Amino acid sequence: MKKFSIIAAIATLFTLLASLMASSACFFGWYQPEEPKTLKNK
Amino acid sequence: MPLRSKVIQNISSRLDLTEDQSEVVEYGYIAFTQILSTVLLVSVLGWLSGILWQSLVVLFLSSILRQFSGGAHASRPGICLLVGTSASLLFAFLAKLINRLGLSLAATAAIAAVCLVLSYVLVYKKAPVANPRKPISADKHKRMKKYSLITLTVYSTVASVLIILYGYTRNPNFAEYMFCILFGTIWQIFNLTLIGHRLLGKLDSVLNQILFRKGEKV
């Protein structure tokens, strides 16, 4: 159960970061990966 | 199987994520590793060179402005790490070097004014610069330009305060950090220009040939 919560927390963190990057004009650094379909035009 | 795929597969299977959800988590994972690796490498090399805070200021300020203004990109994460780290260290070192020249207050203020006015003009004309992998809609274009100008205004205000403090106290640290703000901004603005795109494109292809000629990724 505890391991599941940690993984869920990590997935939440990654999702938040993904949303933040999608709402910007580009990625944090000098490399722009392909944006997921569901985050396009955010 | 690469580490990234293993991590994402593990998270997806344990949380029973759909393909779309996995893609989003993977995008966030790339962002996380990119931020962490760049900050760690700049911190370690900056600390070893005695310019830790200066290089972090350059890195964060250029990256924050980049979030809203876009610009030239590297073709691989490894090249991105190399270019981002080198630029942050180089400009932090330059800020330290220029500060050691002991420029007068008037000269420091004049350099700052020229750089910031140029930055405003280029951001107003060019930002945001889209990428084939990250197209920007017309609505978002307006929003990003506005945010870029706001960010630039915050940087200009902090730089002006540092110049005033330098004038009053003659403490060289104020001028040094002002130059860090200036160089971080100019480096990002350079990424918006055509010449910046061409130069970084050339650098990218040279690094690709040197580092990845056997088709291996770092």
Task: Provide the descriptors you would attach to this structure in a database record.
heterodimer, A: 42 residues, mainly alpha, 1 helix, 50% helix, 0% strand, elongated, B: 218 residues, 82% helix
Tally of alpha and pi helices of chain B: 8
Order of helices and strands of chain A: H
Strand content of chain A: under 5%
- Computed Rg of chain A: 13 Å
Instruction: Sum up the overall morphology of chain A in one term.
Output: elongated
Q: Can you put this structure into words, describing what you see?
A:
The complex is a heterodimer of chains A (42) and B (218). Helix content of chain A is 50%, strand content 0%. With 42 residues, chain A is mainly α. Chain A has one domain. With 218 residues, chain B is mainly alpha-helical. Chain B has two domains: 1-49; 51-212, no CATH class. The radius of gyration of chain B is 19 Å and the shape is globular. The A-B interface holds A 4, 7-8, 10-11, 13-22, 24-41 and B 10-11, 14-15, 17, 20, 23-32, 34-35, 38, 63, 66-77, 79-81, 83-84, 127-131, 133-137, 140, 144, 148, 200.
Structure, briefly:
Chain A is mostly helical.
How do the strands and helices of this protein lay out in sequence?
The complex is a heterodimer of chains A (42) and B (218).
Chain A (H helix, E strand, L loop, with lengths): L1 H21 L20
Chain B lengths: L2 H13 L3 H31 L2 H18 L7 H24 L4 H22 L11 H32 L2 H19 L3 H19 L6
Helix pairs in contact in B: 1-2, 2-3, 2-4, 3-4, 3-6, 3-7, 4-7, 5-6, 5-7, 6-7
